[in-house]
Amino acid sequence: DAGVIQSPRHEVTEMGQEVTLRCKPISGHNSLFWYRQTMMRGLELLIYFNNNVPIDDSGMPEDRFSAKMPNASFSTLKIQPSEPRDSAVYFCASTPSGRINQPQHFGDGTRLSIL
Amino acid sequence: AQSVTQLDSHVSVSEGTPVLLRCNYSSSYSPSLFWYVQHPNKGLQLLLKYTSAATLVKGINGFEAEFKKSETSFHLTKPSAHMSDAAEYFCVVSHNAGNNRKLIWGLGTSLAVNP
To answer: How confident is the model at residue A1 (pLDDT cuts 50, 70, 90)?
Structure first.
């Protein structure tokens, strides 16, 4: 079975450019999570969706970040304009439902470098 | 407020010797607790979880963890380390109070296994 699929795996771009990260959750999973991982702050939850609806976006750093889930099989995380401090590994995860004690299934991440 | 503390940022063991990765948590409610593993350049994978059933939880790859409420601990152990166990390990506590549902992630413990 296919797991959570993220693209691209690596992205290197210049400051000020728009960055779009993509995620395809596991088929049948109703909840989707976006995380950011850095050495300084560890793993941070940015936003999560339940049945395509954003439930908690309190972790989104600022207005430069936006996330959408137009359908059950696709989500994007966009940064516009990007800044060097956005450099991190971004993970997408999904679970069958919104219950918080269910295991989360992670993609392999997108390693983002903003120059 | 919920919190989780991984007491060691780095642990180094020899192959074939026991592994102990320590985790303490703080929770006002009956928590669910998890251990995840992250291999280099990969997403996170669930090792095991505790959800108020048996206090000794067995996971994948020979790992287990014991929930000790009196000590507010959930340490991860394995009797005999294998080279393939070298990875980053994360202790996680869930926060289930009312509408505020989140996972609280530890900062991780890097496990090195020496031949």
So the answer is: low
pLDDT of residue B76: 98
Tokens of B22: 């320590």
Does the CB of A50 have a partner CB in chain B at under 8 Å? no
**pLDDT of B100 over the 70 cut:** no
**Apex B110 CA angle, B2 and B32, nearest 5:** 30
Contact B51 A98 (CB under 8 A): no
The strand pairing partners of A91, in sequence order, are: A35
What gap in Å lies between CA B43 and CA A93, rounded to an integer? 9
Beta strand residue intervals within chain A, DSSP E: 5-7, 10-13, 19-24, 31-38, 42-50, 53-56, 65-71, 74-79, 88-95, 105-106, 110-114
pLDDT in tens, A36-94: 999 888 899 999 999 999 988 989 988 999 999 999 999 999 999 999 999 999 999 99
pLDDT at B99 over 60: no
| pLDDT at residue A103, rounded to an integer | 86
Rounded to the nearest angstrom, the minimum Cα separation between B68 and chain A is: 18
CA B13 to CA A62: how far, in whole Å?
41
**Residues found in chain A:** 115
- Cβ within 8 Å, pair B43-A91: yes
Radius of gyration of chain A (CA): 13
